[in-house]
Amino acid sequence: MRKTFPFDDPRHKPARVVEQIKSTVRKYLKRERRKALPEGVDFWDFDCRTGKDEATAAEAHVSALIAAIDTAALAGWETIYIEILAKPGRRTPRPKPEESAAPHLEED
Length: 108
Hints:
Blueprint: E1 2-6, H1 14-34, E2 43-51, E3 58-60, H2 65-75, E4 79-89
Antiparallel strand pairs: 1-4, 2-3, 2-4
């Protein structure tokens, strides 16, 4: 999804417009996560960018999208550009702790 959302709508109050933008983003993420995973993939990951427009958009983590919408609304922006691109993600196993790396303390 690559979309520029306006914050002003003559039919709705500004707080309601912000909630509509958040709802649209949440619905899109939910819809993308429901898609079938390709073989060898563990989950859907997302590349996200937000900003005043496409040229000034900066990378953002998917968990920071809602906060970015709130920040833009409080800053008085007229629009916010949101880009969310799904990509396959693979979990990496946690490294096993080495026994020799952590010396055991013995009590006397």
